[in-house]
Amino acid sequence: MPLRDRKYYQGNAYYITTSIHKFIKIFEEKKYIDIILKNINFYRRKYDFKILAYVIMPNHLHLFIFPKQDNAETISNMMGDFKRFTSRSLREQMEKDNKIVWLKRFRLNEPKKKNCHYRIWQERFDDLAVYSPSVARTKINYIHNNPVRKGIVEKPEDYLYSSARNYILNDQSITKVDTDFLVF
Fold first, then answer.
1. Is 45 exposed, middle or buried (0-12, 13-18, 19+ CB in 10 A)?
2. How far apart are CA 53 and CA 177, in angstroms?
3. 3-state secondary structure of 60
4. Which value, in Å, is the radius of gyration of the alpha carbons in the chain?
5. What is the distance between the alpha carbons of residues 80 and 1, in angstroms, rounded to a whole number?
6. Contact at 8 Å (CB) between 6 and 57?
7. Mean pLDDT of the region 101-118
8. pTM
9. What are the pLDDT digits (tens) for 36-77?
10. DSSP string, 102-166
11. pLDDT at 9 over 60
């Protein structure tokens, strides 16, 4: 994934957004969400970052992380690994579930790379270096209120796959979130 021209500052948190190719709503089924959660936790350990907030929406996800190594290459490598591995896992699950319609929509007519016949994620992801508490609060509030804005739930803590539950209900059962890392 090419690096964009951008300044990165030592000690930043990063707000990351990535979406499913063609905005197909695959994350309405628990087994596909579980693949994402398992991989978020794997890459948290591999790349040594704290999860400050997250939400897995039906066709995209937002992560707010604080990496131990703060540089564009680390974020790019982490997201490249995450998207590559989850693409394979998600496709394999779709094949097991006989999701023919999804597989047809993800199939590439002309693969750009050898052995790359499907595109599950959009090619790029968006990231923003967050360097102030007010921007951090804004991003966490955006993440937590995303399911409410989309009309999925009435209150942020009602959405199962969001860190709002971690902050509001002190519920770490879905995935651990470093709620004590930020002091507002």
1. exposed
2. 7
3. strand
4. 16
5. 7
6. no
7. 80
8. 0.89
9. 999 999 999 999 999 999 999 999 999 999 988 766 678 899
10. HHHHHB-SS-SSTT--B--B-S--EEEEE-SHHHHHHHHHHHHHHHHHTTS-SSGGG-TTBTHHH
11. no
Calculate helix-pair angle for 72-96, 30-47, nearest 10 degrees.
Answer: 150
Host H or E run for residue 63: strand 60-67
Integer Cα distance of 135 and 75 in angstroms: 19
Query: The tokens 């690096």 sit on which residue?
Result: 3
Q: Residue 162: what pLDDT?
A: 98
Instruction: Read off the tokens for 39.
Output: 């991989």
Distance in angstroms (rounded) separating the CA atoms of residues 50 and 48: 7
**Domains of the chain and any CATH numbers:** 13-168 (3.30.70.1290)
